Amino acid sequence: xxxxxxxxxxxxxxxxxxxxxxxxxxxxxxxxxxxxxxxxxxxxxxxxxxxxxxxxxxxxxxxxxxxxxxxxxxxxxxxxxxxxxxxxxxxxxxxxxxxxxxxxxxxxxxxxxxxx
Amino acid sequence: xxxxxxxxxxxxxxxxxxxxxxxxxxxxxxxxxxxxxxxxxxxxxxxxxxxxxxxxxxxxxxxxxxxxxxxxxxxxxxxxxxxxxxxxxxxxxxxxxxxxxxxxxxxxxxxxxx
Lengths: 116, 114
What we know:
heterodimer; A: mainly beta; 0% helix; B: mainly beta; 7-stranded mixed sheet; 4-stranded antiparallel sheet; 11 strands; 53% strand
């Protein structure tokens, strides 16, 4: 069975602080894909990043960075120098290998509030 | 390029009624997926369509159904509405199916069942 756990329900920080959102996943597949999405108050989920199970290279994109570690089944997301506009719900998601279609299993989400 | 469009944005129904939600994917996208989002259950997969064929189905009762048209637009229908069906219903589209394909989501239809 697939499972994604985001243990942090809510995080509140002050602007310019760094914040890390945790994601732990469970799967028996050897091929799988991991995603992070952001959901602002408007409702639509906005794609942030994807990783496949064979690519453990960590990535930095502007103020965002991701740390993928298969040994601990974690795919954590860090925002550096947070801004008020970063306030949103962040979801980590897992997709099985090639035969599963586009179905995503989402974590419970982490509500991030960045205060001025 | 227009994003994923869902109509209506808000909907209020009473128990026992049925409802149809509409989704227009991004131009050129052939895969459409539907998700239900509730405070208690989070985001749950409903079903996925590709080229008018249902490819995948989540663990929802038969009251939830969908279809896809030749222009890739999709509709989902919920019959005999229950209070627990109150949720944000999100539609997502992608060029192809599975793998590393990223989903593009609409803003959703907020359904309230009274």
